[in-house]
Design goal:
34% helix, 394 residues, 6-stranded parallel sheet, Rossmann fold, alpha/beta, formyl-coa transferase, domain 3, 13 strands, 2 domains
Length: 394
């Protein structure tokens, strides 16, 4: 992938009509080989696909699609090549596929791919411009580097679990480290691509899910010293139950937003003395509880949000499909009849959006095998022989 400055769109001259600009993702022309089978890698590569990259996922022939918790939301917009990497010729196929792409993403234990005959130590010599992204639990080195684990392992080790709730045990009901690590990895890929434009050389991106989760604590000065710290709670910052059983989240922690909240609730007298003191908390909170219980959550949000009351509904997943803000910005999309989150990265200019969403349904395993191998330089005879030998999808 090489950027040609002369091929970039330029603005119109004076008096010239502005031509519509094709909606192309910023990573259009970048080819990514995805060797991962679990959420950390899948989160990374679907984000790269949303930004325009062509993602080629390597699947075991006849594998059951969407394994390992990787469903429609993380499989959309990708291509699939069926290769048995455990076959004695699988490494040869992988090496040649890697030579046809810009980025390779993998999540094997450190050193495993090198043992099988094609890891970063080989690519750095044979394919020096290749960007090799490794996503693991603890990183490529250190005493824990080869330890197995899952999301709970990494968020616990990182300090994030204890930061979320000092009261233990706490078991998050959604994964945290895979998307955090994946966004870090995608940023690393974009940075490495930019660096390669200047140097011509690739590199290895070493992502630790635990370290990425620890990075979330950067905004809490003193957290690493176990200093007492926490988000303050009170009538101005808490959840309130509404008449429909849903909750609203109130964060009116400044005089202006507290005044707007009290005014909108018809309780202006509560704002007269400023934010409630700890001694007033119980009585003021009871008044707000009683008032919020009289109307549905959605009505309170619509009434108080425009006033600047710092309020939002506590949405469940299905609520997002009806949320006007989510709808306006394409926060959810439909893929193969399933509603999934959309692309959180919005690029735009005066002409409108400059990025799209990879909304194509997940590919059948091996659908793009012949085309991908052809792009990698395999002849038709070689492809036929690989298929006859059971190296690639039948």
């Amino acid at each position: 992938m090489t950027i040609d400055p002369s091929a970039q769109p330029t603005g119109p001259t004076e008096g010239e009509a502005r031509e519509p600009v094709p909606v192309l993702g910023p990573l259009s022309g970048v080819r990514v080989l995805d060797l991962t089978r679990f959420p950390p890698g899948a989160f990374c590569t679907v984000l790269l696909a949303d930004l325009g990259a062509e993602v080629l996922r390597v699947d075991a022939p006849n594998a059951r699609p969407m394994m390992g918790g990787v469903g429609v939301g993380l499989s959309r917009g990708k291509r699939s090549v069926g290769v048995n990497l455990r076959h004695e010729r699988g490494t040869e196929v992988l090496r040649r596929l890697a030579g046809s792409v810009d980025v390779l993403v993998e999540s094997e234990r450190p050193g495993e791919m090198d043992k099988r005959g094609f890891g970063y130590s080989h690519a750095a010599v044979d394919l020096p411009s290749l960007i090799w992204c490794s996503i693991t639990g603890f990183g490529q080195d250190g005493p824990y580097s080869r330890w197995p684990g899952h999301d709970l392992t990494y968020v616990a080790h990182s300090g994030l679990l204890a930061a979320i709730s000092p009261e233990q045990p706490l078991f998050p009901q959604t994964v945290l480290s895979p998307p955090i690590g994946a966004m870090t990895a995608a940023m690393g890929v974009a940075s490495a691509l930019f660096d390669r434009e200047r140097t011509g050389r690739g590199c290895q991106i070493d992502i630790s899910l635990s370290e990425a989760s620890t990075w979330i604590l950067s905004g809490d000065d003193g957290r690493l010293a176990d200093a007492a710290w926490g988000v303050p709670t009170g009538p101005d910052r808490r959840l309130y139950a509404c008449s429909d059983g849903r909750y609203v989240a109130v964060a009116a922690a400044e005089p202006r937003s507290w005044g707007a909240l009290c005014e909108g609730l018809g309780l202006p007298e509560l704002a007269a003395g400023g934010l409630p003191s700890p001694e007033q908390a119980d009585a003021v909170g009871a008044q707000l509880e009683a008032r919020f219980a009289t109307r549905p959550a959605g009505e309170w949000v619509e009434a108080l949000g425009p006033l600047g009351a710092a309020i939002g509904a506590v949405n469940k997943g299905s609520d997002l499909l009806r949320d006007p803000q989510i709808q306006a910005r394409g926060g959810t999309i439909e893929v193969a009849g399933v509603a999934v989150p959309g692309n959180p990265v919005h690029l735009r200019d005066l002409d409108g959006p400059r990025s799209s969403v990879a909304s194509a349904p997940p590919p059948p395993v091996g659908r793009d095998t012949d085309a991908a191998l052809g792009d990698a330089g395999f002849s038709e005879d070689e492809i036929d022989q690989l298929r006859a030998d059971g190296v690639i999808s039948a």
